Amino acid sequence: MAIFLKANWENIIMVNYEIDPEILRPFLPKGVTIDLFDGKAYISLVGFMFKKTKIFNIPIPRFGTFEEINLRFYVKREEGYFVKRGVVFINETIPYPLVAWVANWLYKEHYTVVPTKHFFSKFESTQQLQFEWLLNKKWNSIFVETETKSKDMEPNSFEEFIYQHYYGYTKVNENATEEYRLQHPRWKVFPVTNHAINCDFSTMYGNDFSVLNHTQPKAVFVADGSAVKIEWKRNRLKFGYERN
Fold first, then answer.
1. Which PANTHER family match (predicted)?
2. pLDDT digit string (tens) for 35-53?
3. Cα–Cα distance between 224 and 188 in angstroms, integer?
4. Can you tell me the distance from the alpha carbon of 181 to that of 238, in angstroms, rounded to the nearest whole number?
5. How far is C-alpha 190 from the chain's CA centre?
């Protein structure tokens, strides 16, 4: 299988909010359903580092390392007895227009471009990580403090549910969905000891998500990350008549 994109994803913060599934339904691609954990729907504000990015194994000079901030929710698609667990992105934010343009043009993704920055500090027993992005002349941010020793995710845990989704689904239109697959090993997580979230959800993601401005996260996780591969092949799922 040809690999479209290779990159290292590092220090993957997931800020997880319980959300009314009715808010998500307008963004739900055809052919998938909302994936629930203990009967509840979740959406995640995510920050992580993209490093050593390659497209078709060719390094991207100057643009290969950057911060990404995204908002995503969780879905599944059943094929017989096999369940494909995946994610749908409301928006993905990066600092480079060229990278965003390529992703949007090739795959009809929802990338936007704003200035971003981050810092990382590691001490003997703790580490601190912060991602920031500039919106309407105001810096938004995700800050976490964790222990320095990582641990395995517990089977059937909330952490496992959040991180172990290996498919992506894109709503092309009302009658077509694109499906793609990610490859990466099972990640380890760092116990979080402190966090602070400063995000204007309504301005960043639209009024549908303004409720998150007043919602406390259910949990905040940090994974170590790894090399990640995204396959070139995308399955076009068609339902009914698809207009060009």
1. DUF2071 DOMAIN-CONTAINING PROTEIN, DUF2071 FAMILY PROTEIN
2. 999 999 999 999 999 998 8
3. 6
4. 18
5. 18
